[in-house]
Amino acid sequence: MKRLFALILAPLVLAAGCSEDEDILPAQKDKIVSYLKGTHTPNLVAEADVEEGSNQPYYTVSGDAVYRYIQDLYNPDRVNWTEVTGASTVTITFRAYVFNYANIVTTGSTMTMPYYTNDPVLKAAFEQAGLNTEWWSFEPLTIDMKHPGILKGLSDALLGCREGDTVEAYMTYNMAYGDDHFGIIPKESPVAWFFTVNSVE
Question: How much is the pTM?
Answer without folding.
Answer: 0.86
